Amino acid sequence: MSMKKQRNAEQAVGISAASRITGIEIHTLRYWESEFPELLGPARTDGGQRRYRPEDIQNVFLLKRLLREEMFSIAGARKMLRDQRARNQAA
User: Fold this and answer.
1) CB distance 2 to 37 below 8 Å
2) What is the pLDDT of residues 40-68, one digit of tens each?
3) Residue 56: CB partners within 8 Å, gap ≥ 6?
4) For 83, how many CA atoms within 13 A lie in the half-sphere containing its CB?
């Protein structure tokens, strides 16, 4: 395992801690995983528990901004993220 992967694995937190850090309810985190699988996919332990890495936490904050602060719908946020990804790939 590379140093970076090992460091991220050590920094990963469970869903309860991710909820406290981000201010997003646990059931909402699970729902967002199903709605945005390309953006939010926490690692799983052998027992199936979610482990949110630092990049997952950052993505939760991004979704929180889009959905709760900028008031995008799920479909609108998905389209905006898809368009942004396409622009980044074209650049």
Assistant:
1) no
2) 999 999 999 999 999 999 999 999 999 99
3) 18, 40, 41, 42
4) 6
51, β-bridge pairs? 43
- Look at residues 41, 31, 45 and name the one whose alpha carbon lies nearest to residue 74: 31
3-90 topology per CATH: Multidrug-efflux Transporter Regulator; Chain: A; Domain 2 (1.10.1660)
Q: Is-contact 60 15, C-beta < 8 A?
A: no
User: pTM (2 decimals)?
Assistant: 0.84
What is the H or E stretch that residue 28 is in? helix 26-35
Q: Record the tokens describing residue 43, joined without a space.
A: 């690692």
Residues in CB range of 17: below 8 A, 6 or more apart? 52
